[in-house]
Backbone:
C-alpha cells in the first residue's frame, strides 16, 4: 500500500488507490527532519504511533547522537515493523489520481503510473499536522 521517497531529510510514504477495496483517495504521510529510519519495502496496511518509553529508550541506545526535538514513531505494532526518528510528521489525503505528483512535497518528481491518462481537475486536499508532544 505504501511507497517511500527519501530526500532532504524527509521521508514520504504514499498510499495506493484501490477502487475495488473502496480506497478512492491517495494518502501521504511526510516525516520531516529525519535522523534515523528503518522501513519495509511495502506495507499492506500501516499504523503509525509514538514509540513507547521502552521502545524510545531502545532506539536512543541504537541511534546515538543528539535527538534535539526529534520523536520516535513506530510503523506498525512493533519496532520490527519499522520506525522513523523525525522532528515532525504530517499527513494529507486527496482524491487526486495517484498519478499526480505529491501534494505534500510538490518538488518531488514522483513516477507517473500512467502518463497517457487524461488528468481531471485538481481536487481539494486535506492537510492535518500531527499534534506536538508537550
Residues:
Amino acid at each position: 500500500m505504501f511507497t517511500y521517497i527519501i530526500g532532504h531529510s524527509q521521508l514520504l510514504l504514499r498510499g495506493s488507490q484501490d477502487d475495488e477495496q473502496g480506497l478512492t483517495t491517495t494518502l501521504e504521510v511526510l516525516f520531516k527532519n529525519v535522523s534515523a529510519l528503518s522501513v519495509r519495502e511495502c506495507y499492506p496496511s500501516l499504523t503509525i504511533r509514538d514509540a513507547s518509553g521502552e521502545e524510545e529508550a531502545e532506539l536512543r541506545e541504537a541511534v546515538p547522537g543528539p535527538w534535539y526535538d526529534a520523536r520516535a514513531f513506530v510503523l506498525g505494532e512493533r519496532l520490527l515493523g519499522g520506525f522513523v526518528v523525525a522532528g515532525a510528521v504530517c499527513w494529507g489525503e486527496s482524491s487526486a489520481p495517484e498519478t499526480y505528483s505529491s501534494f505534500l512535497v510538490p518538488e518531488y518528481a514522483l513516477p507517473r503510473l500512467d502518463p497517457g491518462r487524461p488528468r481531471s481537475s485538481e481536487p481539494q486536499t486535506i492537510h492535518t499536522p500531527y499534534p506536538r508532544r508537550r
